[in-house]
Amino acid sequence: MYEWVDRSYDDLEERPQLILWSMRRWWLDTAANGCGCSRVGPVFQSVGMMAALPFFQIMMLSLRDTMVQPKRLGRESVSEQEAVILSLLSFPASRDPEAVAGRLSGLVAPAKKQRTARAIAGFAARFVPTGLSGWKPDEESKIR
After folding, report:
1. pLDDT tens, 50-64?
2. Separation of CA 39 from chain center
3. How far apart are CA 82 and CA 77, in angstroms?
4. Which one in 27, 59, 62, 102 has a CA-CA gap of 20 to 30 Å to 36?
Protein backbone atom coordinates (compact mmCIF):
# COMPACT_ATOMS: atom_id res chain seq x y z
CA MET A 1 0.00 0.00 0.00
CA TYR A 2 2.75 2.44 0.90
CA GLU A 3 4.13 2.33 -2.63
CA TRP A 4 0.94 4.10 -3.77
CA VAL A 5 -0.17 6.45 -0.97
CA ASP A 6 0.44 10.15 -1.58
CA ARG A 7 1.86 9.53 -5.06
CA SER A 8 0.88 12.07 -7.66
CA TYR A 9 -1.59 10.90 -10.28
CA ASP A 10 0.86 12.03 -12.96
CA ASP A 11 3.59 9.78 -11.52
CA LEU A 12 1.49 6.64 -11.95
CA GLU A 13 1.79 4.30 -14.91
CA GLU A 14 -1.20 4.04 -17.24
CA ARG A 15 -2.75 0.95 -15.62
CA PRO A 16 -3.03 2.44 -12.10
CA GLN A 17 -4.07 5.77 -13.65
CA LEU A 18 -6.96 4.01 -15.37
CA ILE A 19 -7.99 2.26 -12.13
CA LEU A 20 -7.79 5.50 -10.16
CA TRP A 21 -9.66 7.48 -12.82
CA SER A 22 -12.34 4.77 -12.97
CA MET A 23 -12.86 4.74 -9.20
CA ARG A 24 -13.06 8.52 -8.98
CA ARG A 25 -15.33 8.80 -12.03
CA TRP A 26 -17.63 6.10 -10.58
CA TRP A 27 -17.86 7.94 -7.23
CA LEU A 28 -18.73 11.26 -8.83
CA ASP A 29 -21.34 9.79 -11.15
CA THR A 30 -23.08 7.85 -8.37
CA ALA A 31 -22.89 10.83 -6.00
CA ALA A 32 -24.81 12.80 -8.63
CA ASN A 33 -27.43 10.00 -8.71
CA GLY A 34 -26.12 8.79 -12.05
CA CYS A 35 -24.96 5.40 -13.22
CA GLY A 36 -21.45 4.65 -11.98
CA CYS A 37 -20.55 2.79 -15.14
CA SER A 38 -22.04 5.16 -17.72
CA ARG A 39 -18.68 6.78 -18.45
CA VAL A 40 -16.40 4.07 -17.11
CA GLY A 41 -17.94 1.42 -19.39
CA PRO A 42 -17.03 3.08 -22.70
CA VAL A 43 -13.45 3.56 -21.51
CA PHE A 44 -13.21 -0.10 -20.46
CA GLN A 45 -14.59 -1.06 -23.87
CA SER A 46 -12.04 1.12 -25.66
CA VAL A 47 -9.18 -0.76 -23.98
CA GLY A 48 -10.70 -4.24 -24.39
CA MET A 49 -11.80 -4.79 -20.79
CA MET A 50 -15.59 -5.07 -20.85
CA ALA A 51 -15.35 -8.42 -19.06
CA ALA A 52 -13.95 -6.57 -16.03
CA LEU A 53 -16.82 -4.06 -15.79
CA PRO A 54 -19.35 -6.17 -13.80
CA PHE A 55 -16.65 -7.01 -11.24
CA PHE A 56 -15.63 -3.35 -11.04
CA GLN A 57 -19.26 -2.37 -10.39
CA ILE A 58 -19.67 -4.97 -7.62
CA MET A 59 -16.32 -3.94 -6.09
CA MET A 60 -17.33 -0.28 -6.04
CA LEU A 61 -20.80 -1.00 -4.67
CA SER A 62 -19.22 -3.04 -1.88
CA LEU A 63 -16.77 -0.25 -1.05
CA ARG A 64 -19.33 2.55 -1.29
CA ASP A 65 -20.36 2.50 2.36
CA THR A 66 -16.87 2.55 3.83
CA MET A 67 -14.67 4.61 1.53
CA VAL A 68 -14.44 8.38 1.58
CA GLN A 69 -15.73 9.72 -1.71
CA PRO A 70 -13.52 12.12 -3.65
CA LYS A 71 -14.85 15.65 -3.94
CA ARG A 72 -13.94 16.00 -7.60
CA LEU A 73 -12.23 14.20 -10.42
CA GLY A 74 -8.68 15.44 -10.34
CA ARG A 75 -4.99 14.82 -10.29
CA GLU A 76 -4.74 14.85 -6.53
CA SER A 77 -2.38 12.45 -4.86
CA VAL A 78 -3.52 8.90 -4.21
CA SER A 79 -5.49 8.72 -0.94
CA GLU A 80 -4.86 6.03 1.64
CA GLN A 81 -8.05 4.19 0.71
CA GLU A 82 -7.29 4.39 -3.00
CA ALA A 83 -3.79 3.09 -2.24
CA VAL A 84 -5.27 0.06 -0.49
CA ILE A 85 -7.35 -0.78 -3.58
CA LEU A 86 -4.41 -0.25 -5.94
CA SER A 87 -2.25 -2.51 -3.79
CA LEU A 88 -4.98 -5.17 -3.63
CA LEU A 89 -5.20 -5.15 -7.41
CA SER A 90 -1.46 -5.34 -7.93
CA PHE A 91 -0.24 -7.85 -5.33
CA PRO A 92 0.61 -11.31 -6.70
CA ALA A 93 -2.35 -13.14 -5.14
CA SER A 94 -4.91 -10.53 -6.23
CA ARG A 95 -6.82 -13.14 -8.23
CA ASP A 96 -7.36 -15.32 -5.15
CA PRO A 97 -10.49 -14.25 -3.22
CA GLU A 98 -9.25 -15.79 0.04
CA ALA A 99 -5.96 -13.88 -0.12
CA VAL A 100 -7.81 -10.66 -0.92
CA ALA A 101 -10.31 -11.19 1.92
CA GLY A 102 -7.44 -11.34 4.38
CA ARG A 103 -6.38 -7.84 3.33
CA LEU A 104 -9.81 -6.22 3.53
CA SER A 105 -10.01 -5.82 7.31
CA GLY A 106 -11.02 -2.31 8.20
CA LEU A 107 -11.96 -1.44 4.63
CA VAL A 108 -15.29 -3.26 4.39
CA ALA A 109 -17.76 -4.60 6.90
CA PRO A 110 -17.21 -8.27 7.81
CA ALA A 111 -20.52 -9.20 6.16
CA LYS A 112 -19.30 -7.77 2.83
CA LYS A 113 -15.75 -9.12 2.99
CA GLN A 114 -16.22 -12.28 0.90
CA ARG A 115 -18.37 -10.59 -1.76
CA THR A 116 -15.90 -7.72 -2.07
CA ALA A 117 -12.95 -10.12 -2.21
CA ARG A 118 -14.59 -12.11 -5.02
CA ALA A 119 -15.30 -8.91 -6.94
CA ILE A 120 -11.73 -7.61 -6.53
CA ALA A 121 -10.29 -10.98 -7.55
CA GLY A 122 -12.62 -11.15 -10.56
CA PHE A 123 -11.74 -7.60 -11.57
CA ALA A 124 -8.00 -8.26 -11.19
CA ALA A 125 -8.25 -11.40 -13.31
CA ARG A 126 -10.04 -9.53 -16.11
CA PHE A 127 -8.24 -6.20 -15.86
CA VAL A 128 -5.95 -6.91 -18.79
CA PRO A 129 -6.13 -3.86 -21.00
CA THR A 130 -5.13 -4.39 -24.61
CA GLY A 131 -4.67 -0.82 -25.75
CA LEU A 132 -3.77 1.43 -22.85
CA SER A 133 -1.19 3.49 -24.70
CA GLY A 134 -3.95 5.40 -26.45
CA TRP A 135 -6.36 5.56 -23.52
CA LYS A 136 -8.07 8.89 -23.16
CA PRO A 137 -11.28 9.54 -21.23
CA ASP A 138 -13.98 11.52 -23.03
CA GLU A 139 -13.80 15.31 -22.80
CA GLU A 140 -16.33 15.61 -20.00
CA SER A 141 -14.61 12.93 -17.94
CA LYS A 142 -11.04 14.10 -18.33
CA ILE A 143 -8.97 14.25 -15.21
CA ARG A 144 -8.03 17.83 -14.65
Report:
1. 999 999 999 998 888
2. 14
3. 10
4. 102
